[in-house]
Write a structure and sequence with these properties.
Blueprint lengths: L3 E6 L6 H11 L8 E6 L5 H7 L6 E4 L16 H6 L4 E4 L2 H6 L4 H13 L3 E6 L3 H5 L3 H12 L11 E5 L13 H18 L2 H6 L2 E4 L4 H8 L6 E4 L6 H8 L5
Parallel strand pairs: 1-2, 1-8, 2-3, 3-4, 4-5, 5-6, 6-7, 7-8
Helix pairs in contact: 7-8, 10-11
Bound molecules: 2-phosphoglycolic acid.
Length: about 250
């Protein structure tokens, strides 16, 4: 059975006090057992988050990491550094990293290799821009991102890969892909993994949807057969809406 996952990508939100307050409230909530819940705070709060959630089922992820093991890379953070504070999952290839920090497919493939080489799990984001969708190129764009970022991996590596489909036009815009659009792309991604690897690999990989997921639309999106959960931005910043989304699978 594919793992159901709801991950909160905090982006550049919440200082230490806000993180403490959020996690304090989160820990008061009853967690749905069948959903793996992840929070991805900024680097500065990862250690606190890990320690705060040490005896709790919610996991902690980083939002990015550098591809090198160490070196003269001012301002960067390595996989080993993340692991040293307890973080074993990293989001890579988010469209904001691709767009604002020039992260290319080749660079992302390197980052993926480094993360997996350090026994981390990768949440790898793919997704087309509005111009691609308008041109009808969305499947080609996503196929290309998958090929360059992930399809060099071995079958075994896929036990540590989660895919997040995030159409760029739906991120932070209030605009959501319709449940049908999400399903169509998720099915396409799963088929691409089947074609490149095998049905066994494709059936085991969790594919999350991201882009303006809210309590009001989560149930319908998560109800699609190839949607295994969500990568949530804005609505993950409040405990109530985040938990409502996490519980959308069951209620
Ligand atoms: P959003 O962000 O939910 O605020 O649209 C999703 C994401 O960027 O992961």
């Amino acid at each position: 059975m594919r793992k159901k996952i709801v991950a909160g990508n905090w982006k550049m939100h919440k200082d230490l006090a806000e993180t403490e307050a959020f996690l304090g409230r989160l820990k008061e909530q009853v967690m749905p057992e069948e959903v793996s819940i992840i929070v991805a705070p900024p680097f500065t709060n990862l250690q606190h988050a890990f320690q705060s959630l040490r005896d709790h089922p919610v996991r902690v992820a980083a939002q990015n990491m550098h591809q090198s093991d160490k070196g003269a890379f001012t301002g960067e953070v390595s996989a080993a550094m993340l692991k040293s504070v307890g973080v074993e999952t990293v989001i890579l290839g988010h469209s904001e990293r691709r767009a604002h920090f020039n992260e290319t497919d080749d660079l992302l493939a390197e980052k993926v290799n480094t993360a997996l080489g350090n026994d981390m799990t990768v949440i790898f984001c793919v997704g087309e821009e509005l111009k691609d969708r308008k041109a009808g190129d969305q499947f080609e764009v996503v196929q290309n991102q998958l090929e360059k970022g992930l399809f060099h991996l071995s079958e075994d590596d896929w036990a540590h890969v989660v895919i997040a489909y995030e159409p760029v036009w739906a991120i932070g815009t209030g605009e959501t892909a319709s449940p049908e659009q999400a399903q169509q792309m998720h099915q396409f991604i799963r088929q691409a993994v089947t074609d490149h690897y095998s049905e066994t690999v494709a059936e085991a990989v969790s594919i999350l949807y991201g882009g303006s997921v809210k309590p009001a639309n989560a149930k319908e999106i998560f109800g699609q057969p190839d949607v295994d959960g969500g990568l949530i931005g804005g609505a993950a910043l409040e405990v109530e809406s985040f938990m409502e989304i996490a519980k959308a699978f069951i209620e």
